[in-house]
Amino acid sequence: MKLSPLLVPFVLLFLGGLTLAVSQSLGFWLPLPYDGGMFDAYTALLDPHLLESVGLSLYVALVSALVSVSVGAMLAYAVWRLPDTLERASVVYKVPLILPHIAVAFIVLVFWTKSGLFSSVAYHLGLLNTPAEFPSVLYGNYGLGMILAYTYKEVPFMVILGYAVLKRVSPRVVVAAKMLGAGEVYTFSHVVLPHMYRVMHVVFIILFLYAFGAFDIPFLLGESSPGMLSVEVFNLYFRRDLANRPVAMAVLVCMFLFSLAFIVLYTKLASSLEQKERKL
Questions:
Q1: Burial per residue of 139-157, b for 16 or more beta-carbon CB atoms within 10 angstroms, e otherwise
Q2: What letter does residue 125 receive in the DSSP assignment?
């Protein structure tokens, strides 16, 4: 109740924006008369170009979230195992968190372009005849530039939450596992990792949906065709004829519905898997 003065305007603005998006996707409240049918905008979503954009968005979001959660969980375990003196120095892993996503995108550009730092180093080491021979990491129709940027930005997020969970776990469980003959890999996967499962699921949902709908990194590092869905919406809304606005709104509505369905289905799947492991 104490937050209601702040919550009410937020809810009204959110619902107002959602109502406007749904209405315009159906052909209502548009700045110009609309001659199409009520669901023509949603039919247009079956266009092959938009379907390729959907596939790219899902691929980039899935790979970046999986890599970020996996690497972040291992780094959280590594930081947790550090001595107290080195643990304080490990705070450097938090640096990407304070950087805006646009800055992270420029860092990827500085390091991974054909004229970037890595290509220059490889050239001076004699590994390349010219910097232009450096592999096309960016803009190669695989979304690698976006995946690199998201991974660099998101791994520390998983480290912080995973480390916070492990701080409540007694280090004796690791000692006991090793005394019983467990190796480092088995100790991490069967003793330590189960403590982080819940937070890993939450982090995966957040990172996946953010990468799926974000605009800044795809705008700077994404391919021109097909582009991420956020970039396609931007082009439809600002760089095309006003007649394409219902299609842009239809894409936004579908992205919103997909996000809700993904959260519900993923949480149900994760809880069912967790219950099965407890029974075992």
A1: eeebbbbbbbbbbbbbbbb
A2: T
